């Protein structure tokens, strides 16, 4: 029986369990604890191969990783699992997540895998999976892989003569470097621009400084000495204090911080002040809109983006659609409506004319190009609107009990509070995709009013969960 037919048979035979392994962005957890163990990584590799082997051709998979020490545990386990079911594995070493997406597509691979826990500390790791077109997996595909991990995976083991081969791809970084540089206008360069770039001791520690230097900028690089343990440690996009201090010290024009796998960015202006991710989205949207390059004149954003962004984009003639939190949901919405730009407040910026996932470096080049062209200071180009006050609150709940957001009384109460704010604000409450937390976001023009609403929602949920 062929692999695809066998997969359909097993789908019917074995029960499905959703989200046992996958979270908001792939599989993630503390190393050597469920689900991030070598044993499970082996099964994940076998399950991924089983899901995507279809036909008699030699099947390819590209595997990249960031700089965590645990990459040496997860990478060989995944590789063994994939080779065991007959997939040829191409190892590319430490590269940004968007590089894996790009290489998967350009090499006509059947699947791409990035081993990274993104902005998390070194003790965590994760597995992100890309389809042959460089896009992330659907919920349905993740469900099928989960079912295979816990199913009879031995059905898919290859015969000895059909085992996969493993090859190290030596020029992967250079391929991606040129890909990123090609997103920058060939008639321009960054001469005269002084940039501080913080690579978070992560996957872009070599590539990022080289890209900006080759394009003509004066580059001061920090977070470029990974040792397996210091990825995201007091540096990078989640902790930009060091970047702010370095920008002021060097009197730089702009600071750019990436996270551990370089699929998101944070920008610091010449005054050392961190720029809101929503303002980065706004500037890029405006650039594309004015050039007539913003398809459908629409931008996809998540529920976490500030209402001021939505209002500003509406003012300049750009529509917005809101999605669930997670860059893959942004990408799904972009495909659905046919637009080519979207992003998250956290710094995931998706420019689908160039890449199929968030790419901190390509987004940064869009900003610095505009900075050079405008002949303004970084603080001036981002002085476009005032953010509405936002209050975020997390409430822990017992995972063994019913999700409080499924309670109709709670749902009605949240809607009532949202209606009370009207057009001057909004209420967004969701269950975390990775932790037993209820996340509450309330924003509006009146700080006191949104503070009171948060308190009322917290009181209502805690009363339910304590009973």
Index terms:
Alpha-D-Glucose-1,6-Bisphosphate, Chain A, domain 3, 19 strands, 15 helices, five-stranded mixed beta sheet, 4 domains, 467 residues, seven-stranded mixed beta sheet, alpha/beta, single chain, globular
SSE inventory with pairings:
Elements: H1 3-13, E1 22-23, E2 26-30, H2 38-52, E3 59-65, H3 71-84, E4 87-94, H4 97-106, E5 111-115, E6 124-131, H5 139-149, E7 166-168, H6 172-181, E8 194-198, H7 207-214, E9 218-222, H8 241-250, E10 254-258, E11 265-268, E12 274-275, H9 277-290, E13 298-302, H10 307-315, E14 319-323, H11 327-337, E15 341-343, E16 349-351, H12 360-374, H13 378-381, E17 390-396, H14 408-421, E18 425-431, E19 437-444, H15 447-466
Parallel strand pairs: 3-4, 3-5, 4-7, 8-9, 8-10, 13-14, 13-15
Antiparallel strand pairs: 1-2, 2-6, 5-6, 10-11, 11-12, 15-16, 17-19, 18-19
Helix pairs in contact: 2-3, 2-5, 6-7, 9-12, 14-15
Describe this structure in words.
The chain has 467 residues and is α/β, with parallel strands linked by helices. The protein folds into four domains: 170 residues, Alpha-D-Glucose-1,6-Bisphosphate, subunit A, domain 3 (Alpha-D-Glucose-1,6-Bisphosphate, Chain A, domain 3); 81 residues, Alpha-D-Glucose-1,6-Bisphosphate, subunit A, domain 3 (Alpha-D-Glucose-1,6-Bisphosphate, Chain A, domain 3), CATH 3.40.120; 106 residues, Alpha-D-Glucose-1,6-Bisphosphate, subunit A, domain 3 (Alpha-D-Glucose-1,6-Bisphosphate, Chain A, domain 3), CATH 3.40.120; 77 residues, TATA-Binding Protein. The protein is 38% helix and 21% strand. The chain is built from 15 helices and 19 strands. A seven-stranded mixed beta sheet has the order 1-2-6-5-3-4-7, sandwiched between helices. A hairpin with a 5-residue loop joins β15 and β16. 50% of the residues are buried.
């Amino acid at each position: 029986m062929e692999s695809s037919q066998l997969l359909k048979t097993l789908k019917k035979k074995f029960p499905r369990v959703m989200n046992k392994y996958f979270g908001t962005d792939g599989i993630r957890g503390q190393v050597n604890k469920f689900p991030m163990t070598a044993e499970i990584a082996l099964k994940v590799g076998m399950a991924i191969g089983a899901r995507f082997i279809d036909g008699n051709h030699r099947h390819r998979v590209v595997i990249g990783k960031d700089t965590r020490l645990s990459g040496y545990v997860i990478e060989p386990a995944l590789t063994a699992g994939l080779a065991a079911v007959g997939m040829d594995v191409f190892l590319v070493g430490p590269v940004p997540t968007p590089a894996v997406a790009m290489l998967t597509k350009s090499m006509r691979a059947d699947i791409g895998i990035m081993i990274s826990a993104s902005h998390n500390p070194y003790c965590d790791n994760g597995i992100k999976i890309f389809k042959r077109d460089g896009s992330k997996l659907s919920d349905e595909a993740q469900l099928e892989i989960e079912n295979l991990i816990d199913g009879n995976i031995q059905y898919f083991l290859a015969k000895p003569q059909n085992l996969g081969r493993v090859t190290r791809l030596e020029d992967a970084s250079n391929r991606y470097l040129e890909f990123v540089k090609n997103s920058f206008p060939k008639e321009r360069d960054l001469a005269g621009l002084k940039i501080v770039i913080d690579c978070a001791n992560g996957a872009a520690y070599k590539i990022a400084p080289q890209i900006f230097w080759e394009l003509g900028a004066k580059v001061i690089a920090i977070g470029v000495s990974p040792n397996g343990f210091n990825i995201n440690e007091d540096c990078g996009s989640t902790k930009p204090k060091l970047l702010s201090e370095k920008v002021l010290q060097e009197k730089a024009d702009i600071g750019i911080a990436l996270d551990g796998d370089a699929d998101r960015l944070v920008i610091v202006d010449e005054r050392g002040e961190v720029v809101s991710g929503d303002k980065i989205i706004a500037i890029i949207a405006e650039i594309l809109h004015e050039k007539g390059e913003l398809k459908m004149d629409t931008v996809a954003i998540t529920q976490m983006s500030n209402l001021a962004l939505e209002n500003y984009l509406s003012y300049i003639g750009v529509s917005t659609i809101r999605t669930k939190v997670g860059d893959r949901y942004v990408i799904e919405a972009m495909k659905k409506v046919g637009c080519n730009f979207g992003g998250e407040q956290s710094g995931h910026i998706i420019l689908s004319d160039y890449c199929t996932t968030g790419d901190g470096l390509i987004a940064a080049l869009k900003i610095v190009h505009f900075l050079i062209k405008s002949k303004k200071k970084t603080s001036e180009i981002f002085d476009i609107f005032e953010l509405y006050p936002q209050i975020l609150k997390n409430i822990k709940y017992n995972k063994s009990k019913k999700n409080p957001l499924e309670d109709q009384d709670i749902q009605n109460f949240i809607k009532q509070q949202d209606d009370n704010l009207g057009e001057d604000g909004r209420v967004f409450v969701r269950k975390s995709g990775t932790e037993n937390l209820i996340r509450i976001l309330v924003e509006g023009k009146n700080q006191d009013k949104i503070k009171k609403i948060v308190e009322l929602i917290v009181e209502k949920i805690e009363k339910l969960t304590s009973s």
